[in-house]
Amino acid sequence: MRYFNTEGCCKPNEHYMVCLDDRLRTIREEFVEKGKYFIINRGRQYGKTTTLMALAEYLIADYVVIHMDFQMMSTASFADEQTFAAKFIRQIERYFSRKQKRMEGVDAETFQMLLALKNEEKLSLDLLFEGLSEMCETAEKPVVLMIDEVDSASNNQVFIDFLAQLRGYYLNRDEFAAFQSVILAGVYDIKNLKSKIRPDEEHQYNSPWNIAANFYVAMNFPAEQIADMLCEYEEDHHTGMNVEAVAEEIYQYTSGYPYLVSAICKIMDEKTNGVDDSTAWKREGILQAVNYILKADLPLFGSMIKHVNEYPAIKKMLYDILFWGESIVYNLNNRAVGLAGMFGYVKEQEGCVRIANRIFETCLYDYFLSEEELANEISDFSRQNKNHFVKGKKLDMDRILERFVEHFTDIYGDNDEKFIETYGRKFFLLYLKPIINGTGNYYIEAQTRDARRTDVIVDYLGEQFVIELKIWHGNEYNERGEQQLTEYLDYYHLDKGYLLSFNFNQKKEVGVKELRIGDKIVVEAVV
Asked: Under a CB-based contact definition with an 8 Å cutoff, are residues 151 and 159 in contact?
């Protein structure tokens, strides 16, 4: 029986997975057949290894494929040219020995001459490439080289020299036989491998790999592909799920990030963290799975927080987007944008930088807020009174707003306008987080996040709340905000919404009141 896999490479005969045929066909036609040297540079757990392994099988009928993994080579393997070249040859030998069909098209005599080089006392990169060139020239089929986890070779001069040799043979392939195509895969962009983008020193982008083609093939999963995968699961398990609706909801939280898609499905399939048969493949089950993921100590999240702390420019950019609503142009020449994009933490949307998906966004919010939560007085209030805001299993959002207005006014009411405009919305999240933590989750609607307005969407045990946070800019702007909120409630099929205004008018009326606007109820809180 197949299952959803989040550990290592996915295999179609063992795991439920998105069909890769279209992706493989595009890589073959647009890159391999055109003789491109290119890099599959994506964030961690983005399906790079799965794609390479599937591509190797996809190409093997018409190409000799050499697929190696630099994780299998220790640091000592990069000590010098001789050691590296010998290990490289042994990797090729081991790869071909595992399946006879991989050798089809390879000239046996030339291959044995290549293997004999590993015993040379003065083996160099020059000799290695002469042997590889001979193998390419005598092979009956074009030869494709794939190297996974090239990050493992970072900070090793011998590998940089190896890239330079590849470049030389590529540029002179009319004279010297060379690989039809070279495919490198890793998190780091190849031009940065020389020093793995050390944050503590000036880095020069002077890699010899300036011939690499831009790899533009999308590797995230659109909702349609997620639905196709779920259809296969449904054929086996007959859950009665609404496949298209479930796929769309999963996509809304993950933006198709491969690991996160599989993780949500795995949790619902295995009925972990309170997910049961009645809710598993419904919206409630998805929300429970997302909550479980956000609480888990995942290496993916650990890596993201590590990079946020290593690169202050990334940290500032993400903070400004999340809490200030800054609109930052998506320009990869901007160091912070380039790094965050390379790691997979941000994406381009309408020319601007956006957090890659809702789950990453909530993880980042939780991290930034946690730096202040324990020392913040308003968080203490909500934490101590958490039980007052939940009745049965229902979240009392009206009560939350009422108490927030009271506590915020008591603590921060005497602060100046600039202070409240800067920190007001963050303090509401600091107030909200201890109340829903462990049971519900929240995210910020990216389309409405700006310096004046932010919409917080709270999911709590299957119930959804929309809270618009905004800075007061007059009655006309406020009325427009009320109308926007009612339209947003229509989108979420809700009859009731919440409006929290930070008002600097000296004559403002602090408190909470209930309004009826059309067929909607709006609870408006003013501080």
From this structure: no
Rounded CA gap, 107 and 137, in Å? 9
Structure tokens at 58: 């996809």
From the list 9, 29, 15, 10, the residue with the least C-alpha distance to 149 is 9
Beta bridge partners of 37: 182
Whether 39 and 184 have beta carbons less than 8 Å apart is answered as: yes
User: How many other C-beta atoms can be found within 10 angstroms of the C-beta atom of residue 117?
Assistant: 18
Beta-carbon contacts of residue 294 (< 8 Å; ≥ 6 apart)? 359, 362, 363, 366, 441
pLDDT tens digits, 360-380: 999 999 899 887 776 678 888
Alpha-carbon gap, residue 403 to 382, rounded angstroms: 9
Which DSSP string corresponds to 4-66?
Answer: ---SS---TTTB-----HHHHHHHIIIIITTT-EEEEE--TTSSHHHHHHHHHHHHTTTSEEE
CA–chain centroid gap for 6, Å, is 14
Contact 160, 193 (CB under 8 A): yes
Say which amino acid occupies 105.
G
Topology of the domain covering 21-192: Rossmann fold (3.40.50)
Give the H or E element holding residue 193: none
Reduced to 3 states (helix: H, G, I; strand: E, B; else coil), residue 138 is helix
pLDDT per residue as tens digits for the range 44-54: 899 999 999 99
What are the respective helix, strand and coil percentages of the chain, to the nearest 5?
A: 50, 15, 35
- Cα 235 to Cα 11, 44, 231, 238, 270, distances in angstroms: 18, 31, 6, 6, 17
Helix ranges (DSSP H) in 325-474? 335-343, 358-373, 377-384, 397-412, 417-436
Query: Could you tell me which of 163, 161, 153 has the C-alpha nearest to residue 78?
Result: 153
- d(CA 134, CA 127) in angstroms, rounded, equals 11
The residues spanned by each domain of the chain are 21-192, 223-296, 374-526
CA trace torsion 32, 35, 36, 37 (10° rounding): 100
Task: Measure the CA–CA gap between 35 and 27, rounded to whole angstroms.
Answer: 11
Q: CA 362, CA 459: separation in Å to the nearest integer? A: 12
Give just the sign of the alpha carbon dihedral 468, 473, 478, 481.
Answer: negative
The pLDDT value recorded for residue 117 is: 95
Place 16 in a pLDDT band, splitting at 50, 70 and 90: very high
Residue showing tokens 């449904």: 234
User: Are β-strands 463-471 and 453-460 bridged in parallel, bridged antiparallel, or unpaired?
Assistant: antiparallel
Cα separation, 27 vs 44, whole angstroms: 20
Residue 448 pLDDT exceeds 60? no
Band of residue 204 on the pLDDT scale cut at 50, 70, 90:
very low
CA-CA distance, 505 to 527, in Å (whole number)? 10
Structure tokens at 469: 């946070």
Closest-CA residue to 81 (of 184, 159, 185, 174) = 159
The pLDDT of residue 262 is 96
